[in-house]
Amino acid sequence: MFIVIIGCGRTGSRLAGHLSSAGHDLVVVDQNEETFQDLPVEFSGFEITGNALVHNTLEEARLETADLCIISTDKDKVNFMISQLIQNKYPGTKIIVKGIEPKLIDIYDHDKVTVFSEKDILVDKIYNSIVSNEVSG
């Protein structure tokens, strides 16, 4: 699968390593070239320094041929704007978005975008470990 990851912070860089190890073809896009230093040694894809809200950056990332785009910046509003741009320019591309504030998850069209809230996932994991009595100590 050909995947474009937008945002190379902690989430994006870890995903890039895992997906690269699993044999997927990857392009990672970030405005800050220094963030590519966080990519794990398993990463074997391409790095593009640029603003994903600029159409030329998305063309350079070959988004028109991507099977999936993962949007993982640290700003909800930026993630939303990028998802809207991709939906309009590349309507066949599947989109996964990292949501930061759970209350903003509802702004997305969930028929077109899959959103994962960091805080909801953490709360669910903690709660499930408590109710299933998997807490150490």
Automatic annotation (TrEMBL):
Keywords: Ion transport, Potassium, Potassium transport, Transport. InterPro entries: K_uptake_TrkA, NAD(P)-bd_dom_sf, RCK_N, Trk_Ktr_HKT_K-transport. GO terms for cellular component: plasma membrane. Residues 1-123 form the RCK N-terminal domain. Coiled coil: none annotated. GO terms for molecular function: potassium ion transmembrane transporter activity. This is TrkA family potassium uptake protein. It comes from Halonatronomonas betaini.
